[in-house]
């Protein structure tokens, strides 16, 4: 980064870096990171490092089966399994060094598993005539092959493999421990113990791991992942790294004159030492920053999870370059099916595009201290890319600062992540049934009813009542076999007609399954939407003209998250945090004029509410006060979008508040009689304009009350919905509005001790109600055994 030079001719940032390194080496004692827990999920992802990199592809000599430059816009494939030291099976991904060799035009390469869709991202960038490399994590595709795309011009390409990741745990390899980026070596000063330049064609050995109590990398580590910076290079060349005393290694970095940087894994000798060899005609200085290390066995450390490479952010798409000295926050967790916690580290390719001045990026976990280290060193007007592994911070985000005097565009491509084990949830017993009336099918006047619940052994069930007037018409469809679930599932429907069932997996992520086609009995496979939440999801659909479906859930820290998806085929942007509100895991959302009003209980038992707008914003939370409230609040919307909320109090009674005409809330909660509920209430504004409240009693029966007259806030005596025959429930009741052929009504749905789904339909006819049949009970057909 040549912004300003010092008196001795060296760029100012290099002088500052030397001084910083000297100060750090004298004053700072770096505490070792605590070892990650064992990756016990059985999914592998353990790393097997190579002491000497193997070669998978070299188009200059035909290694890998390609003996000519790769043309612009061309895609080639080469074999990864069974070559270069990589086993023929049991491999989930390889860690490779990819080199662009003398391209005729400025270009980028993209690598991805053969047989899958080419991702819209880059793996390595180079300008015309350069030889420049980068590291990448690449999954293994069909026939054990990897696809490679060259964007422009002709270029030779080499691919060297630094090691591989296993498919299952318990065999070779070990887990990963991510670190706060810690500078270990800077030959411009004394940091690392072997100062001075590495001469042309010479080498230096450094101790990178030690059994000393304050060593950042423990002596038992097998390899360390480093950000490597070659500086002050007068000529281009390549850098080799190998365990001290071992065989001379292949290239782990090809560099150009000036400064070049990217991440790479290096295997350690038993004494923790590594030798770096400068294969160029001029001396270089070397800066090594540890980003994490690998342990010797799979019983500890985090395992790699490969994701289809995906672009997290590209500031060029919004024409919003990052100004000098400013930062952006990038969401990692909750995207691409990732959880929002227990991410040990994220594997990125970071690209700087269109820089107006030279500099570097600083990248660190949100909420943590900004590091003194750098990533992606770049010069003006040249795109540069660098691979890195970064811990995630608050809300599973990373922060990226532009450390230059000009503007830059930043591109972040996720290649994988390292998974700490997540706690397995128990199957919640006797959870609510979700009910939704679907949009009418083509040519029909009324839509059918959709039911979904998770039973007491964790199976997700779905039923469709094709004839809304006939409860015996329910057909239960077997959802695809999948992992176990817990809690109440969420039902929603896309504008195109497909119904979605979303439920909380026992690994705490939210999963979803969609109808193959509208009105079809077929379903897609379950998709892991990520999230690692403390609550089951709640689904809403924005206006019919917008059609966006939104999932809400609460994490263990009390934050509210949302996940928006416009169509059944669009992936959506993933989970996004709406901020910390100290919520418990229970919430409800009701539609209002400009979006949805959300009600939830906080950890003190007070009810809170906030407005979620159609655009995805959230108003500040308003506390409605109280203490000791439990369960999911219920809410109704009066004409004019005035709200009333109900919740179970600490004593078990149902209490309520109604919003005044100015939008405020009274200080006092009112009791809805003396009835003691054994669960959360449900409420609905019925066709007569009165509010009806339903709840489970301490005797297991379902009770109801309603306002004596419209807006009276006085309540009838609580009565059983089945006054003559005992019909107990083991779940809290659900209320749903239903439009039948003869008009609008509503239903009460619950499950009994025999796991039968019971439906009580509110009689539409006032004559029927006066004759004593206020509700008509139905037992839905039983789901098929699975």
Overview of this protein structure:
By secondary structure, the protein is mostly beta strands. Helices cover 3% and strands 46% of the residues. The protein is built from two helices and 52 strands. The strands form 13 sheets. A four-stranded antiparallel beta sheet has the order 1-8-3-6, with no helix packed on it. Strands 2-7-4-5 form a four-stranded antiparallel beta sheet, with no helix packed on it. Strands 9-16-11-14 form a four-stranded antiparallel beta sheet, with no helix packed on it. Strand 26 and strand 27 form a beta hairpin. The protein is elongated, with a radius of gyration of 31 Å.
Give the arrangement of secondary structure elements.
Elements: H1 12-27, E1 47-58, E2 75-79, E3 91-101, E4 107-113, E5 124-126, E6 131-139, E7 145-150, E8 156-166, E9 176-186, E10 203-207, E11 223-233, E12 237-243, E13 251-255, E14 258-267, E15 273-280, E16 285-294, E17 303-314, E18 327-331, E19 343-353, E20 359-365, E21 375-378, E22 384-390, E23 397-404, E24 409-419, E25 434-437, E26 449-454, E27 460-465, E28 474-477, E29 485-493, E30 499-505, E31 510-514, E32 527-528, E33 538-541, E34 549-554, E35 559-565, E36 575-580, E37 583-592, E38 595-602, E39 607-613, E40 622-623, E41 630-638, E42 642-648, E43 653-658, E44 670-676, E45 682-685, E46 691-696, E47 702-706, E48 719-720, E49 734-740, E50 743-751, E51 757-762, H2 766-770, E52 775-779
Antiparallel strand pairs: 1-8, 2-7, 3-6, 3-8, 4-5, 4-7, 9-16, 10-15, 11-14, 11-16, 12-13, 12-15, 17-24, 18-23, 19-22, 19-24, 20-21, 20-23, 25-26, 26-27, 27-28, 29-30, 30-31, 31-32, 33-34, 34-35, 35-36, 37-38, 38-39, 39-40, 41-42, 42-43, 43-44, 45-46, 46-47, 47-48, 49-50, 50-51, 51-52
């Amino acid at each position: 980064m040549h912004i300003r030079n010092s008196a001795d001719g060296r760029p100012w940032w290099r002088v500052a870096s030397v001084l910083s390194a000297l100060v750090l080496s004298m004053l700072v004692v770096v505490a070792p990171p605590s070892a990650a827990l064992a990756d016990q999920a059985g999914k592998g992802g353990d790393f097997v490092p190579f002491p000497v990199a193997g070669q998978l592809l070299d188009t200059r000599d035909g290694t890998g089966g390609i003996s000519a430059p790769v043309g612009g816009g061309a895609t080639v494939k080469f074999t990864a399994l069974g070559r270069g030291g990589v086993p023929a099976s049991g491999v989930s991904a390889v860690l490779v060094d990819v080199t662009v060799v003398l391209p005729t035009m400025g270009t980028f390469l993209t690598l991805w598993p053969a047989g899958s869709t080419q991702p819209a991202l880059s793996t390595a960038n180079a300008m015309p005539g350069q030889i420049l490399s980068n590291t990448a994590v690449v999954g293994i595709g069909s026939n054990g092959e990897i696809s490679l795309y060259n964007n422009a011009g002709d270029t030779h390409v080499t691919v060297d493999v630094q090691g591989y990741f296993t498919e299952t745990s318990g065999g070779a390899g070990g887990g990963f421990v991510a670190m706060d980026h810690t500078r270990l070596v800077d030959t411009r000063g004394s940091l690392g113990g072997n100062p001075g330049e590495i001469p042309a064609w010479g080498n230096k050995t450094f101790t990178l791991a030690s059994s000393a109590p304050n060593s950042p990398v423990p002596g038992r580590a097998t390899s360390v992942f480093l950000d490597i910076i070659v500086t002050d290079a007068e000529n281009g060349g390549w850098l080799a790294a190998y365990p001290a005393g071992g065989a001379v290694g292949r290239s782990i970095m090809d560099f150009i004159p000036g400064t070049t940087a990217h991440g790479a894994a290096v295997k350690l000798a038993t004494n923790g030492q590594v030798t770096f060899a400068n294969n160029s005609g001029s001396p270089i200085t070397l800066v090594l920053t540890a980003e994490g290390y690998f342990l010797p066995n799979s019983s500890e450390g985090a395992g790699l999870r490969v994701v289809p490479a995906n672009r997290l952010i590209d500031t060029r798409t919004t024409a919003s370059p990052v100004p000098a000295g400013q930062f952006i926050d990038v969401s990692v967790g909750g995207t691409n099916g990732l959880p929002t916690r227990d991410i040990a580290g994220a594997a990125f390719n970071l690209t700087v595009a269109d820089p107006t001045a030279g500099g570097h990026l600083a990248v660190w976990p949100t909420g943590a201290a900004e590091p003194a280290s750098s990533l992606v060193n770049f010069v003006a007007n040249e795109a540069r890319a660098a691979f890195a592994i970064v811990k995630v911070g608050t809300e599973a985000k990373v922060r990226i600062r532009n450390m230059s005097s000009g503007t830059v565009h930043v591109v972040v491509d996720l290649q994988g992540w390292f998974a700490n084990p997540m706690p397995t949830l128990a199957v919640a017993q006797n959870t609510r049934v979700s009910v939704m009336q679907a949009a009418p099918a083509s040519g029909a006047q009324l839509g059918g009813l959709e039911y979904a619940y998770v039973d007491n052994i964790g199976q997700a069930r779905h039923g469709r009542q094709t004839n809304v007037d006939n409860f015996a018409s329910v057909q239960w469809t077997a959802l695809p076999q999948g992992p176990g679930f817990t809690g109440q599932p969420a039902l929603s429907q896309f504008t195109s007609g497909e119904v979605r069932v979303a439920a909380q997996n026992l690994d705490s992520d939210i999963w979803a399954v969609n109808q193959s086609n509208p009105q079809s009995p077929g379903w897609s496979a379950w998709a892991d939407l990520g999230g690692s939440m403390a609550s089951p999801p709640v689904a809403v659909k924005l206006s019919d003209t917008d059609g966006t479906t939104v999932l809400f859930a609460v994490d263990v820290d009390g934050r509210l998250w949302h996940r928006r998806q416009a169509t059944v085929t669009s992936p959506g942007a993933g989970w996004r945090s709406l901020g910390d509100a100290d919520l418990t895991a229970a919430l409800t959302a009701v539609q209002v004029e400009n979006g949805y009003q959300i009600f939830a209980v906080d950890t003190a038992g007070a009810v809170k509410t906030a407005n979620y707008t159609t655009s995805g914003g959230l108003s500040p939370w308003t506390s409605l006060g109280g203490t000791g409230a439990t369960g999911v609040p219920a809410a109704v919307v009066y004409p004019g979008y005035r709200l009333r909320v109900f919740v179970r109090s600490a004593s078990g009674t149902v209490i309520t508040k109604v919003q005044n005409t100015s939008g405020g809330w009274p200080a006092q909660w009112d009791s809805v009689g003396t009835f003691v509920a054994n669960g959360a209430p449900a409420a609905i504004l019925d066709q007569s304009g009165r509010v009806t409240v339903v709840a489970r009693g301490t005797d297991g029966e379902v009770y109801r009350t309603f306002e004596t007259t419209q807006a009276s806030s006085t309540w009838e005596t609580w009565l059983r919905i089945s006054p003559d025959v005992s019909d107990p429930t083991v779940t809290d009741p659900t209320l749903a509005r239903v439009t039948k052929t003869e008009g609008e009504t509503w239903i009460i749905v619950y499950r009994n001790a025999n796991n039968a789904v019971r439906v009580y339909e509110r009689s539409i006819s006032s004559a029927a109600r006066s004759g004593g049949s206020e509700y008509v009970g139905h037992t839905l057909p039983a789901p098929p055994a699975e």
